[in-house]
Protein: Glycine betaine/L-proline ABC transporter ATP-binding protein
Amino acid sequence: MSAMLEAEHLYKVFGRRPDEAVERLRQGAGRDDLRADGTTAAVIDASFTVDPGQIFVVMGLSGSGKSTLLRMLNGLLEPTAGHVRFAGQDLTALTDRELRDVRSRKISMVFQHFALFPHRSVRDNAAYGLEVQGVPRAERERRADEALALCGLAGWEGSWPDELSGGMQQRVGLARALATDADLLLMDESFSALDPLIRRDMQDQLLQLQKTLKKTIVFITHDLNEAMRLGDRIAVMRDGRIVQTGSAEDILLRPANDYVASFTQDVDRSRVLTAEAVMDRHVRGDEADCDCPTAAPDTPFTELCAISARLSHPVAVVDRGHAVVGVVPRQRLVGFLGDEPSSAPATCHTRQDNGGEKEVAHA
Structure:
């Protein structure tokens, strides 16, 4: 499967002689070295790919370069060096007119502060992108109403933005992005201005929509819990550089350095981990039924704990073909809730038609 979006060695430098600054960065200079000369390196050598239908989260503290990176992905900012490829097309090689056409039809953006027009109705706000495209009024209103319904705003089409709560206004912003049927959604801290309960509700809304629409999404956040909840893959940024890219479990269990580890220390692991992440793969098993009650690789950690609490032996983890791929002893669950996972091996014997046993290879 080819990537929907590719970032290749992206740099963004503000200030004097940016090309020279990029060369210095390539030779090992740091942000502070450039700042002394009045130059700011916002993004340094950023590379990643985003597959179709994936939510790719870029996470970092304020000033890490994540919003600058996002704006290079749709051409709002021109990279100082590097390339952005969208659906195989090099956006950095397009003319301004070609780039505007891509932004209006294929890439939509959802902003942090809603960016709604106060003098337009909810329907007209949701239809704005289609109006820019030149879609006839009846068609754009139909598509806007469909998008609003998807976002839980059916019945509010004729209302004004100031009649809506903050969460509802953000739903209008999301509906506006969905109405254009763009292939790529860019979401810049889209939920960070909302109250915690509304923010979680919007996360639920996005995940529910994603099950149906399967959009390709790049989501910017400074909140690690939000990143872990939403992201199929996560890139962690620090001082303009991507310091680690991986799944939520990779980031949590295998941090690349102390900086990433410090981010993860307060994360509720039970909301992130699955059976596959915590199971012991050094087991004995086969494609036959296991003597132990089983879990699937994607069984949530909390559900796994509930199963384990009823047993006096490990929980077997089986794949769709009913092959045992790992087991989870209770002490291992306790270990993963602490600072370090338990490394104690465990075995689970499984029945075969001939009564024998067979070892499952380490994955």
Remarks:
- Residues 285-290, 340-363 have pLDDT under 50 and may be disordered.
- Residues 50-270 form a domain with the Rossmann fold fold (CATH 3.40.50.300).
- The CA atoms of residues 42 and 68 lie 7 Å apart.
- The chain is about 35% helix and 20% strand.
